[in-house]
C-alpha cells in the first residue's frame, strides 16, 4: 500500500535505485554467454555453432514469447512480476551452471528469454507512471543504466570469471546475486495497487499505428548495426593486439566503463530531441567503428575511437528504449517489450550479417556491415523526424487569437 506520505518523487527514486541493479543482473544473464561459447563448446564437446544456440534460443524466445508474457504480466502488480522473474532467473542460471544436459540448458535459457522483456518493460511502466511527463525520458534513461550495464559489462565479466576454463562460475554468480535482489525488491519496491495499464486491446492497438511500427523498425536496424560489430569486438581486439586473456578483459571493461557516459548523454536529449539524437549517435557510432578498424595494430591509436564507439553504442541502446517507450506512451510496458523483442531480432540479424562480412573479408572489415544497416535506417529516421516536426504546434502571430 502507498501511504499518504509517500510522494511520487520519493517512490520513483526508490524504484530507480532497485531497478538499475536488478535489470543489470537480468540483462547480464543474456549476454554473459557470448564470451563463454568457446569454453562451453570445448567442455560439452559440441560444435561452436551448437553452443551458440544458448544465445540464439534466448533471443528467439524474447522476440516471440516476450510480448505475450508481458501482456499477462501487465495484469499483475509490478512488484510481483519483478520478484517472480528474479527467482526464475536464480533457478535458470543455476540449471545452466550445474546440468550437463544441453537441451535442459536451452530450455532454461528460453524461459529466461521469455521473461526478460516483461521484467524490463514492467519497470519502465512504473517509471513512466511516477515520473513527471516532462521528465519521463530522463528518468527512463536513468532506469536504463541497468540495461546498459548488463549489455556492456557482461562480456568482460565473463572473460574474468571464466579464467582457467571455469565457464559455469559466471552463471553461479548471477544465480546467487538474484536472491538478495529479489529480497530487496520484496521489502522496498513501491507497492503500487492501482493498475493504470491499458487493456490488452489497447496495448495491441500499438501494432495498428504506422508511426509506432516505424519506431520498432528503426530499433531493429540500429541494433543490427550495433551488434554486427559489437558481437565481434572481442575477436577483433584479440587479433589486432594479441593481448592475453586478463588484459583483453581489462580493455573490454574499460570499453564498457566509457559507455556509461553515453547513457548520461542520451538522458539529456531523450525528452527534447530523441529522433535527432538517434541520428547523431548512429552516425558517430558507424564512424567510430570504422576508425577503430583503421587503427590497425596500434592500441594507442584505437583508444579514442574505441571510447567513442562505446559511448555512442550505449547512447543508441538508451535512445531506442526511451524513444519507443515514449512513442507508445499509452501502453509503455508493452511498447518497451516490443522494442526489446525487435532489438533481439536485430541482434540476431546483425550477428549473422556482420559474421558473413567478416568471414568473406576478414576481421578488419568489422565496420562494413554497420554502414549498410545505417543506410537502411536513414529513411526511417527521416520519416519519424518529419512526423515529429509536423506535430509541433505552430506559433500564433502576435495580436491574433
UniProtKB/TrEMBL annotation:
Membrane topology designation: Multi-pass membrane protein
Cell location: Cell membrane
Transferase in keyword set: no
SUPFAM superfamilies attached to this UniProt entry: MFS general substrate transporter
Regions that span the bilayer: 12-34, 54-73, 80-100, 106-131, 143-163, 169-190, 211-233, 245-266, 278-300, 338-358, 364-384
Residue intervals of the Major facilitator superfamily (MFS) profile domain: 15-389
CDD domains on file: MFS_NepI_like (cd17324)
Alphabetical keyword list: Cell membrane, Membrane, Transmembrane, Transmembrane helix
InterPro entries xref list: MFS, MFS_dom, MFS_Efflux_Transporters, MFS_trans_sf
Classification via PANTHER family: PURINE EFFLUX PUMP PBUE
Name by which UniProt lists this protein: MFS transporter
UniProt source species: Rhizobium lentis
Upper taxonomic lineage: Bacteria, Pseudomonadati, Pseudomonadota, Alphaproteobacteria, Hyphomicrobiales
